[in-house]
Structures are given as structure tokens and as C-alpha cells.
């Protein structure tokens, strides 16, 4: 479409204003929730991975996409930079891809896991990569030759992994276990905590911080003794990051808020409140106070973690609440955690998961146009209020093994009934 001379002049004027100032816009380019963020060692680039299966490399100077990487067959759950600026991506297809920036195909693909990969970590010396998977294992990969070693012992999904400054490794899982692996022998010290664990980070002084489904952060000494605890969110903590100096912790909750915590004093300094959807990923920039967050709405935002203020302009506006028409409906409130991945109407743009329009009466993995896991295609399940209730009673991993769906359960029978009633009303054609 041709633009008028006036439009062109306005565009040039706006570009000049933004290019010559420190004003930043939200980064918009993904078609689904942003599951992972990483900053390059030189602080110039940002890497984002999404449930839409794409990875984008962004310039932090211009807030523009430098490259879109497409390889994975499922959502991208973890991304990382190496010291030489190579990129690493991993996700629901259980594969790890190693890339050179600018190339359209991976340099190498690492295979071995048999379930979604949830997290990655690079060793301090850059020689090893650790991957945490829902196959209940951690793998250590040599970045020189691609060989791997399996660390076993977790009894449920492994959701987080981080290297300690001394080269040791920490992993956390849904089995309540935090494991401190003493490399190279690989013998772990095991700490059992009160709630399933979703994320972990290690400070420069070796202190371990983990985030759990009860919304709490727990701090442990390098040898595994609990040394502190902070209530970060009323909802599960799903992502965790630490500033480069270890002073600040940012913990994202599935409810859409991010807690900023002073690590030494254990004080909750402030809570960042976004437009509402879950925040799936967080990372500090090299200035140690600018925080980047990735949301379920597919947008990357900047925040000043010291003041709690957003940085930049949401140039295309805040998205409308997709459940606004159901205000006061208890079933809609229960469903809100599902909005990140599913639409209620097939007229909306597809998110990470299939639309739920016409759900009841449909056989599992039969919706045309959506790429389902092979494991689901062999199952004899038809979606009804009863089967949906069972899915959330025992959890997707138990009811639909091999699913890409994040593990979540609804413990209350009343809440499950409210959800299934709501879906019957909201998804009927």
C-alpha cells in the first residue's frame, strides 16, 4: 500500500524523535506468550522465545527485531547466549539448537531428552550447557563436541537449572526437590522444600534462590541450608532472575505481577503491575536495574526495577481484556489462567494452544490447522465437562501424557465445576 507524502513526513519525524532520545517502545513481534528471555554478554541484544515456536533476536539500542529464528516444532521455553555470541534455544520438541547469529539454520542440534525442555544454563567457563526437562532428567552437554551426560533422580518435571559460581549445578522440580550436583562426580545433595518448584537462580556469592507454586521465594546457602523466605506473589512464581551484582531479585507470578526483592535484606521492595496477563519471563539488563518482562500478550516491556516505573511507550495500545464480558463470573475467573494459551472463539488470532471454540464433543487432537503432539493423536478422549474436570483434577501430565500443556491442577471441585460450566457457555458455536 502506498503512503501519502504527509504520512511519510510524520513517520520520519517520529523516527527522528525516538532515535534521538532514550524513549523505548514495547517490543512486539511474537504471536504468542513469551516464555524465555536472555541478554547477550555485551548487553546489546535480547533473545526471546515464544509459545508461537519462534525466537527473535532484538537490538536493545533500537528495540527492533534483527532476526527471526524458526526451527522448533513446539513452543520455545528456554534461550541463552554464549560468550562468543552464539545462541541456544530449546523447547517443547525436546531439542536444543545452537545458532550463529545471522544464520537461518542451526549450527548443531542436540537431541537426547524425550519430553519438553523447560530451562537452560551455561557454565561460568562457557564449556558446558545444562538442560532441565519434563522427562525428569538434567543433561550436561559439552559445547565443544555435543556429547552429553544424564543426571537422574528427580521424580517429576525438572523446571529449572542454574550453575553456581564454582561450577556446581542446581536443579529444581515439581517433586519439591532442590538438588545440588557436585561436579564432576555428579553426586547430589537433596533438599526437600514445602512446595513444587518452578525456577532457580544462583547469586555471585553462591546463595541459591528458588521460586515455588505457593508464590514464595526460598533462599538457601551454597550447601543447601534454608536461610530465608519471602512471599513474592499470591499466585505461583513461574520465572525468576537476578541482577548481575546479585542485589535484586525479580520474581514473576502467573497472576501478571513481578515482585522486586532486595536479596540481602529479604524485603519486598515493590510489585510491578502490568496490563493483566501472566508474565512468563524476566531478565535484568547489564545496568543491573532495567528489567525486561515477557508477557502472555506477546509483548516485551521495560521497567525501572528501582522505582517500579515502566520505561517506554506502548505504541500500539494495551490489549483489551478478553474476559471483560464475563465480569463477575466465577468460571471466567478460574479460566483466566488459561487465557495465555487459548481463545474462546475461532474468530480470534490463534495463541499457543488450540482454540476452545466448539470444545465439547470434539475428540482430542482433532482440531484442523493446529499441530498437536503425536502422543495426543492416539488417545481416545472426547472433551466433555467430565473429561475437562478430570484433566485439571489430576493434571495434564497424568491425564494426557506427552502434552505440550503446562502442568496445572485445580484442587477445588467447586472451581472445576465453575470452569466446565463456563466453557459450556463461552465456547458453544
Account of the 3D structure:
By secondary structure, this protein is mainly beta. It has helices at 5-19, 330-335, 374-377, 385-394, 396-399, 413-426; strands at 27-28, 34-39, 45-50, 54-59, 64-70, 76-81, 87-91, 95-99, 108-111, 117-122, 128-133, 137-142, 148-152, 158-163, 169-173, 177-182, 187-192, 197-202, 208-212, 216-220, 226-231, 237-242, 248-253, 257-262, 267-273, 279-284, 290-295, 299-304, 310-311. The protein contains 6 helices and 29 strands. The two termini are 36 Å apart. Helix 4 packs across helix 6 (413-426).
Rounded to the nearest angstrom, the radius of gyration is 21 Å
The secondary structure category is mainly beta
Straight-line N-to-C gap: 36 Å
The dominant shape is: globular
Query: What is the β-strand count?
Result: 29
Number of individual domains: 2
Short description:
The chain has helices at residues 5-19, 330-335, 374-377, 385-394, 396-399, 413-426; strands spanning 27-28, 34-39, 45-50, 54-59, 64-70, 76-81, 87-91, 95-99, 108-111, 117-122, 128-133, 137-142, 148-152, 158-163, 169-173, 177-182, 187-192, 197-202, 208-212, 216-220, 226-231, 237-242, 248-253, 257-262, 267-273, 279-284, 290-295, 299-304, 310-311. It has 429 residues and is mainly beta.
